[in-house]
Amino acid sequence: MKVLTVTGYKPIEMSIFKPNDKKIVYIKEAIKKRLVSFIEEGLEWVLLSGQMGVELWTGEVILDLKEEYDIKIGIIPPFLNQESRWPEHYQATFEEMVLQADFHQPLYQDEYKGPFQFKARDRWLIEKSEACLVLLDEEYPGSTRFFLEEAKKFNEKKGYPIYTITPLDLEDTVQELQLNNPDYWNND
Fold first, then answer.
1. Which 3 state secondary structure label does DSSP give 181?
2. Distance CA 48, CA 67 (A)
3. Any idea what the Cα angle at residue 140 is, between residues 58 and 20, rounded to 5°?
4. Rounded CA gap, 50 and 99, in Å?
5. Residue 134: enclosing H or E segment and its boundaries?
6. Residue 168 and which of 26, 29, 56, 106 are 20 to 30 A apart at CA?
């Protein structure tokens, strides 16, 4: 696999309300772990729409991984100025990521017109990638359900692999990071 789409929850869907929430560290580490294994197997491109949450954090992870690996990032928002109504810190992160992206182009060269733009975005990202990685809990798919439904349809037709990062994967990452932290073992 050379091209992977990554998506997942928005921050509010994970009860994350601040940009320095500790949960983000664990989420980014779980994403990094999966991406590194894909990169070591030949992954060259990661596609994102750049939405708040998992996609922005993935972008940050990839920008860090670029120091060590030959990995490219493509950001394809559904429309122009997708970030215009986001909190300032997410806008700044998005703008920084766009500046460092290997490819950036909104799917529609216009502002938001309707939900059809999100559906077209999902379809485009799926058709342009060879697999996807989705952070979600299948019992509570939230906004990821639309992407997941489209990916499952494509999987039935073309055998499109759908990889996931689940709450259990996140718990494993938390435990692993805690156990590897020497301060964790101090009872002070």
1. coil
2. 19
3. 40
4. 12
5. strand 131-135
6. 56
**pLDDT per residue as tens digits for the range 35-53:** 999 999 999 999 999 999 9
Q: What count of Cα atoms within 13 Å lies in the side-chain half-sphere of residue 138?
A: 8
Q: Cβ neighbours of residue 144 under 8 Å, at least 6 residues apart?
A: 7, 8, 9, 134, 135, 136
Calculate ∠ Cα 44-147-47, nearest 5°.
Answer: 20
pLDDT above 90: percentage of residues in the chain: 91
Please state the pTM of the whole predicted model: 0.94
pLDDT for position 72? 98
CA-based nearest residue to 39, from 57, 64, 56:
64
User: Hey, how many other C-beta atoms are within 10 angstroms of the C-beta on 77?
Assistant: 22
| DSSP letters spanning 68-97 | TS--EEEE--SBTTGGGGS-HHHHHHHHHH
Average pLDDT of 9-38?
96
Q: Is the CATH number of domain 3-179 3.55.10.10?
A: no
Helix and strand tally (H, E) in the chain? Answer: 6, 6
